[in-house]
Design a protein that fits this description.
This is Esterase. One of its GO terms (molecular function) is triacylglycerol lipase activity. InterPro entries: AB_hydrolase_3 (IPR013094), AB_hydrolase_fold (IPR029058). It holds the Pfam family Abhydrolase_3. With about 300 residues, the chain is of the alpha/beta class. It has a single domain (about 5-300), classed as Alpha/Beta hydrolase fold, catalytic domain (Rossmann fold). About 40% of the residues lie in helices and about 20% in strands. It contains 10 helices and 8 strands. It has an 8-stranded mixed beta sheet, with helices on both faces. Helix 4 crosses helix 10 (about 280-300).
């Protein structure tokens, strides 16, 4: 275990991050205290930006100061469906925009418990439909961390079902793929996960599901269809309670033809590790995301 990871764990303990995820019901109002819905130039590293409303979401368009590649990074942030975006979300996507010279749309979608998964996924769908009016789908890359990774998967499943054009690829950072959290392997990982805990995470998913089963594909893409998916770049972590379900997802995808999954595994890493700047491994993870995007742009 690195010194910086030990310091991160200490900081999380002082912040009582893990403890906040042991509550049922989850204190979503307290979680929202870290929300930043309107960024500033400092947070966006001096990049240009403007916000607009698409359907019932606030979408912030961020673009580089120099020549644009013509690619769009459609980004869905995490936050258990109940909060966000946060400072880490804005800073990370801004670094990606700067180093890939691509535009990004940050989707600040409606949150649970005021809104259920049906409304949330409809918002992501409508934003994508607006995006393909401006950008060619082959130049759109979906990015999502945690439940954001969930949302880009359920969006793609719907696009394929409705025979609409799909994006170039998906970059899913430690996504939540099964809201039921019934995998027996989760219990042992809960003991070493420094951020999430099963009780609070499941509470948030219940708030979001409404009357739906937690195994409904609309909130648990693991139970949906991955046939003919565009390439998926999946970031996983050994110290994350969501990993056991991601492992099942990888097995499911690898059995399919014409669907590829590229796994980037963070050994002894926590949830959303590429978004945690204190860790040297996080910097490498972020550079990997940037290299995936740049490779896609150069091969266009």
């Amino acid at each position: 275990m690195s010194l910086r990871y030990s310091l991160l764990k200490l900081a999380l303990k002082i912040k009582r991050e893990k403890k906040s995820w042991t509550k049922d019901p989850i204190d979503f109002l307290k979680k929202r205290k870290q929300d930043i819905h309107t960024p500033n130039l400092r947070l966006l590293l001096g990049l240009k930006f403007e916000s607009k409303k698409i359907y019932n979401s606030k979408v912030t368009h961020i673009w580089p100061n120099e020549a644009d590649t013509g690619f769009l990074l459609l980004y869905c942030h995490g936050g258990a469906f109940i909060y966000g975006p946060t400072q880490e979300n804005w800073k990370t996507i801004s670094k990606i925009v700067k180093q890939t010279r691509s535009s990004a749309w940050v989707v600040d979608y409606p949150k649970a418990p005021e809104y259920t998964i049906k409304t949330i996924t409809e918002n992501i769908y409508q934003v994508y439909l607006e995006a393909i009016k401006i950008f060619d789908p082959s130049k759109i890359i979906l990015i999502g961390d945690s439940v954001g990774g969930n949302l880009i998967m359920t969006l793609t499943q719907r696009l394929l079902k409705e025979e609409k054009e799909t994006p170039s690829r998906l970059i899913a950072i430690t996504p939540m793929v099964d809201a039921s959290l019934t995998n027996p392997k989760i219990e042992s990982i809960d003991l070493i996960d420094p951020i999430l805990s099963k009780k609070g995470v499941k509470s948030a998913k219940k708030m979001c599901a409404g009357e739906r089963s937690l195994k409904d594909p609309l909130i648990s893409p693991l139970y949906g269809d991955f046939k003919n998916f565009p390439p998926i770049h999946l970031f996983m972590a050994s110290n994350d309670i969501l990993t056991p379900d991601q492992e099942i997802l990888v097995e499911k995808i690898e059995k399919l033809n014409k669907t590829t999954v590229d796994v980037i595994f963070g050994e002894k890493m926590p949830h959303i590790w590429p978004f945690l700047p204190i860790l040297p491994e996080a910097k490498k993870g972020l550079q990997k995301i940037i290299s995936i995007i740049n490779l896609a742009i150069n091969n266009e």
